[in-house]
Amino acid sequence: MAKRVYEAWKGSNKFILDGRLIFGPDAKSLLVTLLLIIAPVIIFCVFVARHLRHEFSPYNSGYAILVVTIVFTIHVLVLLFLTSARDPGIIPRNSHPPEEEFRYDNAVSIDIGGRQTPSLQFPRTKEVMVNGLPVRVKYCDTCMLYRPPRCSHCSICNNCVERFDHHCPWVGQCIGLRNYRYFFMFVSSATLLCIFVFAFSALDIKIQMRDNKGTVWKAMKESPASVILMAYCFISLWFVGGLTGFHLYLIGTNQTTYENFRYRADNRFNVYNRGCLNNFLEVFCTKVKPSTNNFRAFVQEEVQRPLPTPSPREAEPDDTDGDPRSKVEDDLDIGEDLLKISQRRNIEEIDEDICSRGSNGPPQNTSEVESISGSDHRAPTIRSENRHSSWGRRSGSWDVAPDVLTNANAMESRNYVTPKDARQ
Which of 127, 133, 125 is nearest to 269 (CA)? Predict the structure, then answer.
């Protein structure tokens, strides 16, 4: 049975509801975030908002505080869900490198089967135009693609994410093109919720002082929940409030967290900055780009395509079917065989001449004969310094190179011994 995309997903994401929801690998941190939001709200509703129900006129107008708290908390949780449970802008991986970017480098060759083959190379970067200015993009070895501008590979999720901002452990998801708007709204709404809880907790302390006609310390003893909530919200405001201010600056200058931290010292010109107003409109008023991934679709197996062969300009031409080096060795072996045959023929003629003259002529010097006959064994192997072969000939014939025959004839003339010399 064919698998669905989310079942064969190569990233580190986690899926629930049959691929309808996608989370990061650290999705368990969401439980901590939910606890940090829900627990203080419950304490506030039970111990503070309930006490403020009848403190305003008309008599039951204090219920509005309780309703606003619950509704606003739900709003924050929905934004958290939209941030962490959706595709942040993951770019689908390629099953093979982009063939249009292949090139062969003759300077970097690989020895395959005793033959130097040009190495297949990828340009690590290339330039694209953004707002009329060149921007360099990098090749991702993991996803086998050239990352679009402002895209980066998240090492935690193991995906390339468009307009990558950062990976947030508090929401358990990457922050990118498709969820940055919701992330900012979540952080800013959490800041407003902290301010809301802090303000009404301080109001409860003041009301306790008025009703009991006591000091601040006595009022704090009467409502310890308000004191705890004020301390908690004060500390939280330093984080979520500071994060909200920082991202307001990033939106106004059209930067991402990744770009700000990485290129801060380079003083680069920001080609994406379109002005403060247009930058805010780009983030909040543009349509969210649809996901390029259908996690519930069935995986379609692709036929493995062979790598393209190098062109004649990129690699050395090879018109023969066999291995060129083996043909060179074959030519040399043929030359050596011819040389040995000629030497053997010379020795046989000398032996016949000695036998025919053995009864009439003087006895031959045994050492001389042995030295002559032993020349076959001591004959050096002739190997030309410049190897000639049939490599490159379209006919593919096995003709011996002329230099090899010349060397063979020279050796034959040197090793040939006339009957007259033998008698001497």
Answer: 133
Burial class (CB in 10 A: 0-12, 13-18, 19+), 87: buried
Q: How do residues 127-177 score in pLDDT, each as one tens digit? A: 888 887 888 889 998 998 899 999 999 999 999 999 999 999 999 999 999
Alpha-carbon distances of 321 from 290, 324, 325, 421, rounded to whole Å: 52, 9, 12, 51
Residue 216 structure tokens? 């601040």
Q: Which of 168, 174, 194, 233 is catalytic?
A: 168
Neighbouring C-beta atoms of residue 10, cutoff 10 Å: 10
* Angstrom distance (rounded) from CA 185 to CA 83: 9
Give this prediction's pTM: 0.67
Residue 194 annotated as catalytic: no
Strand partners, 116: 111
Residue 380, phi then psi, degrees to nearest 5: -70, 150
The tokens for 182 are 């919701």
Provide the mean pLDDT of the chain: 76
User: Does the pLDDT at position 229 exceed 60?
Assistant: yes
Partners of residue 145 on adjacent β-strands = 140
**So what's the pLDDT on residue 174?**
95
Q: Is 332 helix (H, G, I), strand (E, B) or coil?
A: helix
Do 60 and 54 meet the contact criterion of CB atoms below 8 Å apart? yes
Alpha helices (runs of H) in 213-323, residue ranges in sequence order:
216-222, 224-236, 242-253, 257-262, 276-284
